[in-house]
Amino acid sequence: MRTINQTLPVLFELARDQSDESRLCLAERLTDLFNDPDAALTLREEELVSELIDLLIRNTSPDLQARLIERLPPLDRLPHAVLVNFAHQPLPVAAPVLSSSAALTDEDLICVVEQEGREHALTIAARSEISEAVADALVTTGDIRIMKIVAENLGAHLSSKAIAVVTEAARYSAALRKPVLHRPEMNKETTLKLYWWVDQDLRRYALKRFGLTSGQIDQALAATVTSILEENRADKGNDTAMSQIVDWLEDQDALSPRIFLPILRLGHFRVFHMVLGRLLHLETSLVDLILAETGGRGLAALCRSLGIEKAAFISIFLLSHNGKPDEPLMNPRDLTHALASFDRMDTKTARQVVESWSANPRYFKPSEDTSPDEESLP
Hints:
Blueprint: H1 2-16, H2 20-35, H3 43-57, H4 62-71, H5 80-87, H6 91-100, H7 106-115, H8 118-125, H9 132-139, H10 144-152, H11 160-170, H12 174-181, H13 188-195, H14 200-210, H15 214-231, H16 239-251, H17 260-265, H18 269-280, H19 284-294, H20 296-305, H21 310-322, H22 332-344, H23 347-359
């Protein structure tokens, strides 16, 4: 102990000398100190040695840092306080400690994630084993690259919170979708939240792994559409923004009559018209005219042509007529007329009617006080 007490002042003197030679000499002296089996450091001495290493490494060129690291002792011989100091050093110094030292506690690693830069967190994310607490700290950085490494790391233990965070991020980052869907912690509920955001191969994987039913998939679709439209509520009146949403739904093979009700419940009537148009290969402007000029009869023909059942049509009719702003409530007789029209047609007939409208869109364009011949409507 007396030898250590005598050595420390000499080491601090070397630390004050900014020359490369003095720093290399200091690294060698520290190595000798840690390699001495009789040199048991007290907590105070560990703190002093940690301070010496900080003086040694900080404000040193990368080339000299590399030479210093080569002269320092193996990690398993360093006291905990010294290892923590190393963990907060620039990455070339910190990486060996962060990637492999088992002496660092969860609190130590979380502190590094919160206080140091992205590269330090990436190194921790690649450790052979990561606790739930550390994984939580890593994924809540919001960094997609960090999340991806954590999700791919099967030595990482992910809490339900971490899975929720990564699943939500995967909606908007394709790089996360495959890793998170393959996580052992994923369950049917979290998978369904992501189902309509992934490609067909991953959907097939999800179906096989979790045995998803068609009803669950339909519910997931409705929830996905609702979520997207809620997030874009402020742009409800922006046709360009709404058209982009419909484009995305089409790209995801998510356009179907199943999404009519969630769209209408949120009052997104423009999106409803756009989806109708896409499904029936009609211009949205023509859908607008058909529904405006023919009321319930036009909607009946469009819905019948898509194979929609009567009960679903009633819900669609009521939601599409009673929720529009600045319009009076629907007259009950309108529903009666619409249902009569719906009942008079089968799917084949309705498709022929819609095809005729598509072939002759001028029929619905107003001109000089003329209106569609009502006798020709269903």
